[in-house]
Amino acid sequence: MRKKILELIKYNAKLSAKEIAVMLALPVEQVSKEIRAMEQEKVILGYHTMINWEKVGNDNVVSALIDVKVIPQRDVGFDEIARRLYHYPEVKSVSLISGSYDLSVQVQGKSLKEVANFVAQKLATIEHVQSTRTHFILKRYKEDGVIFADEETDRRQVLQP
Q1: CB 103 within 8 A of CB 40
Q2: Helix (H/G/I), strand (E/B), else coil: 149
Q3: Which burial class, exposed, middle or buried, applies to 114 when counting CB atoms under 10 A from its CB (0-12, 13-18, 19+)?
Q4: Segments making up each domain of the chain, as ranges
Q5: Using CB atoms within 10 A of its CB, is residue 8 exposed (0-12), middle (13-18) or buried (19+)?
Q6: Where are the strands (E) in the chain, listed by range?
Q7: Does the structural domain 53-140 have CATH classification 3.40.50.1240?
Q8: What's residue 11's pLDDT?
């Protein structure tokens, strides 16, 4: 039951307990109780609205993905450096990754310069950070399963005999 509730609210956090109960053929009280329990257990961490900021002219947000190579610390591995990073307000996500780099950090700023200053002054100066590689996000096409672009109409020319 939990997974079914989570799948429903994952794509529409506006669903009420009553609507979910109807969709799953369960009592409303049971659904409400389960949602509250998942919130308390930190299974559900929050409810978010996904916004296509390009459509409202929000040109003052620059996003970047930064690959970070670090020297893991004894007894804590990568966790301590990740903890330091996710407390910065510019940092939107931190993930441990495989490959040449160890951490992937998503950052937002008001300009390219602001993001560059974050990397140079805050990120690169952290002890045990060996190197970084910054990728600026130029355009988002899809995020969390949601397509940002308007679906194109068929542009093929109609041929009539």
Answers
A1: no
A2: coil
A3: middle
A4: 2-40, 53-140
A5: middle
A6: 62-70, 91-96, 103-109, 129-136, 142-143, 146-147
A7: no
A8: 82
Query: Which residues lie below 8 Å from residue 53, measured CB to CB, with a gap of 6+?
Result: 61
Averaged over successive runs of 10 residues, the pLDDT of the chain (161 residues) comes to 92 92 95 95 89 75 94 89 95 96 96 94 94 93 82 67 67
Cα angle 135, 49, 21; round to 5? 135
The SS3 of residue 93 is strand
Residue with tokens 């040449």: 100
Q: Would strands 142-143 and 103-109 be described as parallel, antiparallel, or unpaired?
A: unpaired
> Hey, is 49 helix, strand or coil?
coil
Radius of gyration from C-alpha coordinates of the chain: 21
